[in-house]
Give the backbone structure.
Amino acid sequence: MRVHELELSGFRSYPALNVNFPPGPQVVFGANAAGKTNLVEALALLARGHSHRTHIDQELIRWGEPFARVRAQVAHDADPGARLDELEVVVATPGSGAGRKRIRVNGVPRRSETLSAALRVVVFSPEAMMLVAGAPSLRRDELDQLAAQRRPIHGRRLSTYARAVAQRNSLLRAIREGEARSEELAYWDQVVVEEGGAIVDARMDLLAELAGPLEAAHTEIAPGEPLLSLSYVTNAPARPGEDPAAALRRRLTETAEKELWNGATLVGPHRDDVSFRLGDRDLATFGSRGQQRTAILALKLAELDSLARTDGVPPLLLLDDVFSELDPERRAHLVRRIQALPQAFVTTTALSDLDVGLVAESTAWRVTPGRLERSVP
């Protein structure tokens, strides 16, 4: 997949921008805070319908502007004659009359989960370096983003489940205060069980599908190291004969009294985790920083392979200032993958920080506040 044309209006640091990108690697360089990450964020927004940096859409709007608009023409391959899909996401300020967020594909209003049919991305940013040892929510989000791009129904289930948990939590607090009856939980319990069970099923299926590509990528990067694997850590483990939904229903019954006391749903996929394991060791506890970085790079390469298998079209790779986090050997593996893709975006503060061969094959773009200009390396 590749982005042919990108247009920004009132988005972050860009008052207005319209640029055409050729196939192949795109190297975006400039000083810190110039707008490199904002450009990557705009591309990720078009693929996912939301930012990978914030859950608050209003933060995407440039100060003083009524709305932020991101539009792009996207091709599925590098063929100059390939059909282009037009994607558009508009986020408006409250009271502007334009609606909070509008998503269109070829001019037709769509839900965010439909965007992945036209544009899929793998984002590798400095924040990703916390995937192994950071908060469980980082690992859940990583898995869910990949699952939703492969199967859009996963995104819809996540939204339904999140709303159900929020409603259930409000009801639990009302019951605790004597303002509602326990019987009223039955409806939301059913939604949580059905959607939560399906989410856990999808996550575990995805981990099974990733196992081969992850092992292969890690072996390529770190030959001689023990096997790298991901394991699902659930607070509702299934007993013999139970599926994830049945296990979740049983756990809701077992924790009912504690949930009423806390006024919160204490079990379910919103509290699950994913563990990185190197052989029989937990990387978060026992892995060196180098081993953790290698595992994260292997995961990103496995994500590329997983999304490419969806319909045979490689996704768009977005690398936001991560080369400085990797040693020369791991950089070389990443460069080879970049060069094999229809298009990739790489940001850096200076071209001298990148592989010379990669820069020579790339289209270079200089970023200054609010501007993006083609440059000759």
Q: What stands out?
A: The mean pLDDT is 94. The radius of gyration is 22 Å.
